[in-house]
Design brief:
The structure holds two protein chains of two kinds. Chain A is of the alpha/beta class. Chain A has helices at residues 2-5, 28-32, 34-58, 75-83, 98-103, 108-115, 150-162, 181-193, 220-226, 240-255, 286-293, 297-300, 302-325, 331-334; strands spanning 90-92, 169-174, 197-203, 206-207, 210-211, 230-234, 260-265. Chain A has one domain: 3-Layer(aba) Sandwich (Rossmann fold). Chain B is 38% helix and 19% strand. Classes of the chains: A alpha/beta, B alpha/beta. Chain A binds chain B through residues 90, 92, 121-127, 131, 133, 135, 140-141, 143, 145, 148-160, 162-163, 169, 181-182, 185-186, 188-189, 192, 336-339, and chain B through 37, 63, 68-69, 71, 73-87, 89, 104-105, 108-109, 113-121, 153-154, 156, 177-179.
Chain lengths: 339, 362
């Protein structure tokens, strides 16, 4: 179906700049199974979008009492990156991590229970949307403080190296996070210590409502180069296949023992936090987002979307039902797991 | 202190400096636990964090003991990440003041990790801070942040006052404690010698009685425990007053019942802390006492701490800034005998001058 409906998405885009010393990004079996691959990635990407659309529907009911930072428009980044990882690789992400949680294999029912603040959530309701985690599938604790999990990925990767393991760790952050001091501390240390960490910058061009040009005096790849870190930028951030391909190359580089920066252009369709759009505030242009949507496979490939929608919606309904049934944590949880 | 010294056969009772106890426990941690590593600015240099890590990089290799760039927040975040995958990091700050650069990681991440993620993950690690005092440390090399850290649930904060406290607590912390621990060590203690025993009951990760007495309770922290013990000896000899000295030892999880029992017995209380009094350890001791035994005190308590100002560098001001032996003795005697106690006070006015000559309680 993907082959027919949207041929452009089965093409393997070359990364804008081939990473130095990277392994061959393409496996021949992928080409043979390209339709299957496209469908698999598309399915996960669509799942994330439909889950967040369900969050939007539920939000006015106040069942989800947690600030939500939706990744609608950015889902392909999570899907493309996580598909290039092994199950035992670790991802350290941000408050905008519904996408990474699901792409890394986190259970949907536990995610809804977590958003609902219920005991069945991954963190028994103590985390909510901003602190999703699923360590059983390698999604480590997400933080609401910008840039704060970047050194965690570096530390985990350093320990993997110390332990003689070939696992890698991935730090996921937005473009705004690169302005924080700890980003600089982290990439310097990672380069010095030669640790197997992949830095993934989700570049949506916005820090809350501030545009990059008023925030950054540097270009990220040039900046990483000064620290001796190889990098690659993917401009087609709507294309999970392109992102996956670039990620495979980046992961190979990292697993060989060197940090790597993957910068992926993307687009945040919704407001920074909350379930609405924010174009009426006029800090950004709707046309730019519309241009992105015009290339977004979840929008363009209507046939596959509609073909997959029923089963995904059934999954989501089951997960919501699980959350609804899950009890709220009681007083016994208030002072549990502190030390 | 040299590594060779740590290899000697340990007698049941021996004399060991604070720095020597630190070096022994760091050495033992690396020897006994393959997952332990030590990182911090200067841990592998010739000074070795005032002798507490000297020679360990040579003995265990650069993978286990290593210098880091100037990156307090990054280093602490790296430690969290390492802890999450099974390593046990020990990080150092040669002055506690530098740990303020790591506050985001310590407070927003390490302290929250276990709870915020529903108990599914934890980051056990040891963060060693050294509090400076005297020799012109000034405003940014002298702060003692125990109350600040103990304010945040999720952190375990200890202030070892003796070599024995280090020998007893650190191995347990490193081997078994499930979460991040901040140990606030005091620079004035590093060169002091203490008698340590392998037979005595181990000092717990909590509060203990350092000296028994019936007339007045002195609750102290860190170097002020040593000061309180010196003062207790003085008031016994000069006035026959028996002061009970309690080493609070754990700032985050003290044994409040032990404190209350002592005050119930003496009815008199002096609190001697290494930091400011406002919203600090002294305030918390009083809060706990008010909650548990509001009528235990026969008189208002006396509190000794740093003056309510940033620390001045000039020695003349610094000597006024910290409580001296003179003031500690006066506070104890005034509690027991009233302000007009009439007992001659020690002439010693500068505690740090005294500590230069003081060779330790043994």
């Amino acid at each position: 179906m993907g082959l027919i409906a949207s041929p452009r998405f089965i093409l393997y885009h070359q990364p804008s700049k081939a990473p130095q010393g990277a392994a061959e990004p393409l496996e021949s079996k992928d080409l043979a199974n390209s339709d299957e691959l496209y469908r698999r990635l598309f399915r996960t990407t669509l799942l994330i979008r439909l889950v967040e659309e369900r969050v939007i529907e539920l939000y006015p009911s106040d069942r989800i009492q947690s600030p939500v930072h939706l990744s609608i428009g950015q889902e392909a980044v999570a899907v493309g990156v996580c598909d290039a990882l092994r199950a035992d690789d670790l991802v350290f992400a941000t408050y905008r991590s519904h996408g990474f949680y699901l792409a890394k294999g986190g259970r949907l029912d536990r995610m809804f229970a977590e958003l609902y603040g219920r005991i069945g959530g991954g963190a028994k309701g103590k985390a909510g949307s901003m602190h999703l985690s699923a360590p059983e599938v390698g999604l480590m604790g997400s933080s609401a403080v910008v840039a704060s999990t970047i050194p965690h990925a570096v530390g985990a990767a350093m320990s993997f190296k110390r332990q003689g393991s070939d696992r890698i760790a991935v730090a996921v952050f937005g473009d705004g996070a690169t302005e924080e001091g700890v980003y600089h501390e982290s990439i310097n240390f990672a380069s010095l210590m030669k640790v197997p960490v992949l830095f993934v910058c989700e570049d949506n061009g916005l820090a809350v409502h501030s545009h990059r040009h008023i925030r950054q005096s540097y270009r990220l790849q040039k900046h990483a180069e000064i620290y001796g870190i190889a990098s690659c930028r993917v401009d087609e951030g709507w294309d999970m296949l392109a992102i996956r391909e670039a990620s495979l190359a980046a992961v190979a580089h990292v697993r060989a023992g060197r940090p790597f920066l993957l910068e992926i252009a993307t687009s945040r369709y919704m407001e920074h936090v909350g379930v609405g759009e924010d174009f009426h505030f006029q800090y950004r242009d709707r046309a730019a987002v519309d241009a992105w949507k015009a290339r977004d496979p979840l929008v363009v490939d209507k046939a596959l979307t509609e073909a997959l929608r029923p089963e995904l919606e059934r999954e989501i309904e089951a997960a919501v039902a699980f959350a609804e049934r899950s009890p709220a944590p009681g007083r016994d949880e208030l002072l549990t797991d502190i030390i | 202190m040299t590594l060779a010294a740590t290899k000697e056969r340990k007698a049941p009772t021996r004399v060991l400096s604070y720095a020597g106890a630190l070096l022994e426990t760091m050495d033992a941690a690396l020897a006994n636990h393959a997952n332990v590593f030590i990182m911090g600015q200067g841990v592998d240099d010739f000074k070795g964090i005032f002798g507490s890590t000297t020679g360990l990089a040579q003995k265990y290799g650069a993978e286990r003991v290593f210098d880091v760039p100037l990156m307090e927040e990054g280093m602490t975040g790296v430690a969290i990440g390492a802890a999450l995958v099974g390593d046990y990091p020990i990080t150092t700050h040669i002055r506690a003041d530098f740990s303020f650069l790591a506050m985001n990681q310590i407070i927003n991440l390490a302290a929250k990790y276990r709870y915020m993620f529903g108990g599914s993950m934890s980051c056990p690690m040891l963060i060693r801070l050294v509090v400076g005092r005297s020799w012109g440390q000034g405003a940014q090399h002298s702060q003692s942040p125990q109350a600040t850290f103990a304010h945040f649930p999720g952190l375990t904060v200890v202030m070892p006052a003796t070599s024995q406290a280090i020998l007893d607590m650190y191995p347990k912390i490193i081997a078994r404690h499930p979460g991040p621990v901040i140990s606030i060590e005091h620079r004035l203690l590093y060169n002091l010698d203490f008698t340590v025993s392998s037979n005595a009951p181990a000092i717990p990760l909590s509060t203990y009685i350092a000296r028994e007495g019936k007339d007045v309770t002195v609750v102290a922290t860190s170097v002020m425990v040593v000061e309180a013990l010196r003062a207790a000896q003085y008031v016994k000899e000069a006035a026959g007053v028996e002061a009970e000295v309690i080493d609070l030892n754990s700032i985050s999880h003290p044994d409040w019942e032990l404190v209350v029992q002592s005050v119930r017995k003496t009815g008199r209380l002096v609190i001697a802390d290494t930091s400011w009094l406002e919203y600090g350890v002294a305030a918390e001791v009083c809060r706990q006492l008010m909650l548990r035994e509001p009528r235990a005190l026969a008189a208002p308590p006396t509190m000794l701490g740093m003056a309510s100002a940033p620390c001045p560098t000039a020695k003349s001001l610094e000597d006024l800034y910290y409580p001296s032996q003179h003031e500690t003795v006066d506070a104890i005697l005034a509690q027991v005998r009233g302000v007009g106690h009439g007992v001659a006070l020690p002439t010693e006015r500068s505690m740090t001058e005294a500590f230069k000559k003081f060779r330790g309680p043994f």
